[in-house]
Design brief:
Layout: E1 72-76, E2 79-83, E3 94-95, E4 98-99, E5 111-112, H1 137-141, H2 145-158, E6 173-174, E7 177-182, E8 192-199, E9 205-211, H3 221-227, E10 236-242, E11 249-255, E12 261-262, H4 263-269, H5 299-310, H6 317-336, E13 349-352, E14 355-358, H7 363-367, H8 374-394, H9 401-411, H10 414-424, H11 431-438, H12 441-479, H13 495-508, H14 521-533, E15 538-542, E16 549-553, H15 554-572
Antiparallel strand pairs: 1-2, 2-4, 3-5, 6-7, 7-8, 8-9, 9-11, 10-11, 12-13, 13-14, 15-16
Helix pairs in contact: 6-8, 6-11, 8-9, 8-10, 12-15, 13-15, 14-15
The structure holds adenosine-5'-triphosphate.
Length: 576
């Protein structure tokens, strides 16, 4: 009664006589919290209410009419509609309604509904809790903020546009790739450059690695690299030589992972403690290298590292194990394919969300094509992994091994220290040897990934529902308040469309008995899901003048919607 009420005391006399005897005062308080609950799929014309008739679940002040064997009457704009009661509904799906004489403008349909089950839409309003003072509306409409931010950040990278003034020398196309955007600051002396590019045919983005002035033929190992499809390795798709840059450059084409950031940038440079990049060309110097020309560590950097320990800036150990598990998984696949990474360091491993991936695989094979000792290269990979973990544990790349191991001993578990020492030792080892050292932490990682997968799956389910409801809303919006259709200025106000208009009011324009807008998303979700399913649950629609109350089922409303939308679709299609 009150869902369209604009003042607190509507004239009771205006209600149709069938309902005038109802004791409104005795009914439960009209506005209640609607607890989200599971949606129970219905079959047509069974009279089981979808939401239990508990005081917690009713929409505001919509009082269930006493179901009597008589025919219900409703008057709309001078037309009286007769609605059959429960008993007169036949389970074969037929339902009849008739108008009294009086020339109403609503053509009363004789509807045939399918007897099969309607589509099942589960988890109706579970993600649409009822509005409360404390919950912001935004949190109900959108996915969790962390996931949303991750997605938006990736989109930002996906839709990034090149600035031609910034890089005027960049070619428009390289073979099938165009719209080049450098992934790093271009430096005139570097021997490699990376770009994001778009494939001209399929429109997908790729990460291109250009090896400048590359004279020899592509390494045979590229074919093996292209076969590696692993979640912790960025996939190589193709490689070719091009003269587009005015030299013989080799281009290696990889999957593009938007918003990927190197471990160096995320954990070391961000800490401000490990920038060991040579200012002249941005290249990375390994502080543990046996090369006598490599920059040596400084005592003050050791102090900075110790200060980092003191103020708790070290990475939590689970983060390190997460990286170890993923990197060893990647290395395992690479070594099993008879290949070696050869350039594993913090600038060649990227992270997106929680995923760690080894980047630019195969580049070292192109640059050092003559290095054929694969077994040694595999050992070097494991040593490089040990150095990488040590750098991350200390959040610096500028400290000597002894000091770093000492720090790890003090700050982390014995297991982590043993693993690092094993990786750095000269003894022959394989990735499989590391597995017992990782031990049960492997299961912790699997659990974490499964939880994340569950989270995304749940979110996906909700988004599926949101998409479905959006399509329904779009259909309703195409119909409601349409100024004219096929020269008929009253099209959206008459016939089936009139019911849809009243239904729209019921769903979205309900007010509390005090006349305040009733913004309950559970109510909206409940109504739209019932409409989409075409259930046999009845809904009472009050005309705007509050003089008539119409009893309709969601199945009827669904039929009205489909009919009206079909009319629109036909009118939209130009005749041949
Ligand atoms: N497949 C990829 N998809 C998206 N971004 C990537 C991909 N691989 C690497 N990146 C990003 O590209 C950027 C540049 O990578 P690159 O390896 O050239 O960095 P670098 O540290 O400058 O190394 P180098 O000195 O060898 O050029 C990095 O920020 C990295 O996160």
């Amino acid at each position: 009664m009150t869902y369209m009420r604009h003042n607190m005391n509507p004239p009771m006399a205006s209600l149709t006589t069938q309902f005038s005897n109802m004791n409104i005062e005795a009914s439960p308080p009209p506005v209640r919290k609607v607890y989200p609950r599971e949606y129970v799929p219905m079959t047509y014309y069974t009279q089981v209410p979808i939401m239990p008739e508990s005081p917690q679940s009713s929409p505001p002040a919509v009082i269930p009419p006493p179901l009597t064997p008589q025919v219900h009457l409703a008057n709309v704009g001078g037309t009286t509609y007769f609605y059959p009661t429960n008993d007169s509904l036949n389970t074969s799906g037929g339902m009849k309604a008739s108008t009294s004489q009086g020339g109403g403008d609503r053509a009363v349909p004789t509807m045939q509904y399918p007897t099969s089950c309607p589509p099942m839409y589960t988890s109706t309003p579970t993600h649409m809790p009822s509005t409360s003072k404390h919950a912001g509306l935004a949190t109900m409409f959108y996915m969790p903020e962390q996931i949303r931010n991750e997605m938006y950040q990736r989109n930002e990278y996906m839709y990034m546009q090149p600035n031609p003034q910034q890089y005027p020398d960049l070619p428009d196309n390289i073979e099938m790739y165009s719209v080049l955007i450098p992934l790093e600051n271009l430096s005139p002396h570097s021997i490699t450059t990376s770009y994001r590019a778009t494939h001209r045919q399929n429109g997908d983005h790729y990460a291109l690695r250009r090896l400048h002035t590359y004279g020899t033929v592509p390494s045979k190992r590229f074919e093996a690299w292209k076969q590696i499809d692993h979640p912790n390795i960025i996939r190589l798709h193709e490689c070719f030589i091009t003269k587009t840059f005015g030299d013989h450059s080799m281009i290696l084409v990889y999957d593009y992972h938007p918003a990927a950031v190197t471990l160096m940038n995320k954990y070391i440079v961000a800490n401000g403690a490990g920038n060991n990049l040579d200012g002249s060309n941005g290249s990375y110097h390994d502080p543990f290298s046996s090369d006598p020309d490599a920059p040596r560590p400084y005592t003050h950097q050791k102090n900075a590292m110790l200060r980092a320990v003191a103020c708790g800036a070290l990475l939590p150990e689970p983060v390190l194990w997460n990286i170890i598990v993923q990197l060893t998984a990647g290395l395992r696949a690479i070594h099993a394919a008879g290949l070696a990474c050869r350039t594993l360091d913090a600038t060649k491993v990227v992270i997106t969300g929680c995923r760690i991936r080894i980047a630019w695989c195969g580049v070292a094979d192109a640059l050092h094509a003559n290095e054929i000792d694969n077994e040694k290269a595999k050992q070097d990979d494991l040593t490089a992994l040990g150095r990488l973990i040590l750098s991350l544990a200390c959040r610096t790349i500028q400290c000597d091994i002894a000091t770093s191991v000492e720090l790890v001993t003090r700050s982390y578990s014995q297991d982590l220290k043993n693993l690092i020492v094993c990786l750095l030792s000269v003894q022959h080892k394989t990735v499989s040897d590391l597995m017992p050292m990782i031990g049960a932490r492997f299961y912790t990682q699997v659990e974490a990934f499964e939880r994340r997968a569950d989270l995304f799956e749940n979110q996906l389910a909700q988004e599926l529902d949101n998409g479905r409801l959006l399509r329904l809303l779009l259909k309703m919006s195409f119909i409601n308040e349409r100024p004219e259709m096929n020269m008929d200025l009253k099209w959206s106000e008459t016939g089936d469309r009139y019911l849809l208009k009243l239904f729209r009011d019921y769903v979205f324009h309900s007010v509390t008995p005090e006349g305040r807008p009733w913004l309950d998303l559970a109510h909206v979700g409940y109504c739209l899901n019932n409409l989409d399913s075409g259930t046999n649950t009845q809904v009472q629609l009050l005309t705007r003048d509050e003089r008539s109350l119409l009893l309709v089922t969601f199945a009827e409303l669904k039929h009205c919607l489909e009919q009206a939308f079909e009319e629109l679709t036909q009118a939209a299609t130009p005749s041949p």
